[in-house]
């Protein structure tokens, strides 16, 4: 099925990235939230640096959290 579709161009990914970043900035600046702009940028940068390490660790173990683990985590978070 993938043979029938062309690969998305790089500018598509960049435009989605820029639009998402700008929309996030608009929400942080215009809405009445307690997150400052610098914290939004720092959170995005931290996620950019942390995500590859977490992903590689999960891939190296070849294990993913089971649905039981996810359900238990959601249940514990909803109780608090």
Textual characterization of the structure:
By secondary structure, the protein is an all-alpha fold. The protein has one domain. It has 3 helices and no strands. It has helices at residues 10-30, 37-61, 67-79. The radius of gyration is 18 Å and the shape is extended.
What topology does this entry show?
Elements: H1 10-30, H2 37-61, H3 67-79
Keywords:
mainly alpha, single chain, 3 helices
Task: Using the alpha-carbon principal axes, give the shape.
Answer: extended
Relative strand content: under 5%
Number of domains: 1
Look at the helices and sheets and give the structural class: mainly alpha
Largest sheet: none
Distance between the termini: 45 Å
Q: Total number of β-strand segments?
A: 0
What is the gyration radius calculated from CA atoms? 18 Å
- Unreliably modeled segments: none
Quickly count the helices: 3
State the order of secondary-structure elements, H for helix, E for strand.
HHH
Mean pLDDT over the residues:
81
- Share in helix: over 70%
């Amino acid at each position: 099925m993938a043979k029938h579709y062309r690969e998305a161009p790089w500018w598509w990914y960049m435009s989605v990235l820029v639009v998402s970043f700008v929309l996030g900035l608009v929400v942080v600046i215009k809405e009445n939230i307690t997150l400052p702009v610098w914290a939004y940028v720092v959170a995005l940068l931290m996620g950019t640096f942390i995500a590859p390490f977490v992903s590689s660790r999960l891939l190296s173990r070849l294990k993913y959290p089971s649905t039981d683990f996810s359900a238990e985590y959601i249940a514990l978070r909803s109780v608090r």
